[in-house]
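Q&A log
Question type: sequence-to-structure
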Amino acid sequence: MNTIDPRCARCSIPPGERLCQTEKGRAPDFCPTRTAERTIHAAMEEMQQPGVVAFARAAAVQEGEGYGNRESGYEAVRPIKPRIEETIEFARRMGYRRLGLAFCIGLRREAAVVEKVFSGAGFEVVSACCKLGRNDKECIGVAPEEKIRIGDPEPVCNPIAQAYVLNEAASEFNVMLGLCVGHDSLFLKYAKAPCTVLAAKDRLLGHNPLAAVYNIDSYYRAIKMPAQGEQEPGK
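Response status: OK
Response body:
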């Protein structure tokens, strides 16, 4: 077992000089390419398993085909496809015919468009909304004052039911559209088919969570400030 925690997000070495990118690259003490060789070897063995290797290869090929002008060299490449198009291409590459669409009711209009796009591309689409079942939030211990509609009946999001319904519908590949933080985790835990995310929920930023990251030193600087009495990580 590796005794040094991996901290790739803290690596300050330029990408082209990193050990994970080139054989003679440099690496900090916490680099798992250097410290977790046994674990990585086990992962590579798993990746060679029947079914897994085909999925992994299809994903790698799809990644490459998401760029144009590759023949001119790496510095000249440019993205040429939106994620929804890559999702369709990947599903076709894997031979999937039946797609599951798990969506938030707040994105019902977007879900209707996505369903038409997938159906128009030749897929059978089964879909499940987050509020299916209409069970009140109080059934899981949510107090009336903790609801969005304070004191009123309010259906709980039920990602486990979404997963169960799509499992029973025999979806081959699930596409998640705007599930809440935590609800997405439960859906991933209980869904049987492989899953991908088309859109991550961000109510404030129009489902573009990275907008806060891109503006972390200006409009969203307060997010990175440690809570009163807490130290910043690593100090």
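Response note: The chain has a mean pLDDT of 94.
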